[in-house]
Structures are given as C-alpha cells and as structure tokens.
Specification:
Helix content is 15%, strand content 54%. It is built from 3 helices and 8 strands. The protein has an 8-stranded antiparallel β-barrel.
C-alpha cells in the first residue's frame, strides 16, 4: 500500500508545477468499476484517481476498488482541447466484486473537450498480478494441492477499457 501512495504522489507532483491547471470531477467506468472520476489537468498532462465499486445484481457492491493514472497528449497539445493521449494506469484492473486483482498498464485514448464537459474513451493493456487459489475462490475449492495448482492465476496480460465524463469549471 505504501508503494501505491508513493506512485500517486509522484503523479500528482508531475502536474503540480504547471502554471494553469483545472480540477475535473465526474463519472468513470474502468473495467467494470463505476465511480467518481477525480482529475487534475495541467497544460499537457493529467493525473486521475477513480475510487469506485462494481455493479452487481443487487446494486453496487460493498467492496471499494480504485484505479489511478497519468495521461499525456500524444501531439504535445493542451489538455483543454480535443485530441489523442497516451497514459499509464495502475490499480484493480481485472478483479471482480469478490476479489481484487492489481495491475499496471498502458492506455491510449481520445478526449472530447467542450466548454463545460470532457469525455474520454480509452483502451489499453495491463500486466496483472498473479493470484493463488485462496485469493479469489472459496476455501472449499482450494482443499488439495492439485486444486490450488489448477486454480492459481499466473501473471498475465489483460485488456483495459475506460470511459469518463467530467464537468469542467
């Protein structure tokens, strides 16, 4: 957890020194996580955090998840105009409402900026952490060594899909 806070602090510092910046608040959907999009947009870079939860049959799940990242305009353009961007992200990128699966990855997307809104749509690839059987299955499914071996998830790539709709001041 300490590493995650250090990375987030470094990302925030990357836009802190920029002369003009704006704070954006809105809705985000990232790989099943629905939540609040908190974004700090500098001139050419943005840093964001998405605290959220999964949508399940009975509504929102009780387990909170998170995603954070950094975006940079491909054409070195400004973040207050429409255009393409690349970025790095980390957090719960492939879990489900029953378990967390952390990962880090690369995203590419497009942002549409209007006077009072900014919409982003992105896709990418992440490296996901390995999980033991007991990390994501019920204990009864992990009784024997063979079951634990068969149900373990190795480190693997995963696809990332994201959408944000934010209000601008």
């Amino acid at each position: 957890m300490r590493l995650h806070r250090s990375i987030l602090a470094a990302l925030l510092l990357s836009v802190a020194g920029q002369a003009s910046s704006e704070v954006l608040v809105g809705y985000a959907f990232v790989n099943g996580i629905n939540g609040l999009n908190l974004e700090w947009a500098g001139q050419r870079n943005t840093v964001y955090a998405v605290p959220g939860t999964y949508l399940v049959d009975s509504g929102l799940s009780d387990d909170w998840r998170w995603v954070a990242g950094f975006r940079h305009r491909i054409d070195r353009g400004y973040t207050n105009v429409s255009g393409y961007y690349t970025g790095l992200m980390f957090g719960d990128l492939a879990g489900e409402y029953r378990y967390e699966r952390l990962g880090a990855g690369f995203e590419i997307g497009h942002q549409w900026v209007k006077e009072y809104t900014r919409i982003t749509l992105s896709g990418g690839v992440a490296v996901l952490e390995s999980l033991d059987c007991s990390d994501y299955r019920r204990a009864i499914s992990c009784d024997t060594a063979q079951e634990r071996q068969d149900n373990a998830q190795d480190m693997e790539p995963g696809l990332i899909l994201g959408l944000t709709i934010s209000l601008r001041r």
